Amino acid sequence: MPLSEDPEGGLMSGWQGGVRWIYAFTDEEALARFAAMRSAGAGAGAAAGEWEYLSILGARLLDAVVPAAEGPTGVAVNVADQDGSMLFPPVVGIVPDACAVDAGPDSADAV
Predict the structure, then answer these.
(1) Which of 10, 29, 73, 92 is a plausible cystine mate for 20, CB 3.0–4.6 Å?
(2) Which CB contacts under 8 angstroms, 24+ apart, belong to 63-70?
(3) Are β-strands 13-16 and 86-88 bridged in parallel, bridged antiparallel, or unpaired?
(4) What is the pLDDT of residues 47-63, one digit of tens each?
C-alpha cells in the first residue's frame, strides 16, 4: 500500500460516494502501473519518482486498519488494472460489523 503524500502521513486513499477507499496492491508491478497512471494524469513533465509503501496482510488491513479510519472506509485493490481491480466496500461480511455502513439497527455496534 502506498503511503500518503500528505505530510501527516498515513495510507494513500481517495474518496468516492462518501466512502474513503484505501489503495492496496497485490504486488509491486500493480503499484507501479498505478504510479505511472497517476503521473500521466498529473500532466506533462510530472515525475513518477519513488513511492514509499507498506506491505500488510489483507486480513489485517480489513480487521485493524479500516476500523481505525474515520468514517466509512473500504479497500480498492489494483485500481489501475482494468481486468484485475477489486473493491471491498465497508459492508457486513467484509469489514467488522462496527465499521459496516449496512449494519442493521439490531446491531449494537452499528454506525
Answers:
(1) 73
(2) 63/95, 63/96, 65/11, 65/22, 66/22, 66/90, 66/95, 66/96, 66/99, 67/95, 67/96, 67/98, 67/99, 69/20, 69/22, 70/20
(3) unpaired
(4) 557 888 999 999 999 99
Confidence of residue 16 (pLDDT cuts 50, 70, 90): very high
pTM, entire model: 0.80
Closest CA to 13 of 66, 69, 4, 40: 4
Which candidate, 53, 55, 14, 11, places its Cα nearest to that of 32? 53
Residues 24 and 86: their CA atoms lie apart, in Å, by: 10
Instruction: Answer whether 74's CB lies under 8 Å from 89's CB.
Output: yes
Please state the rounded mean pLDDT for residues 36-46.
66
> CA 64 → CA 14, 56, 98, 110, distances in Å?
19, 11, 12, 17
Q: Pick from 78, 75, 74: which is nearest to 31 by CA?
A: 78
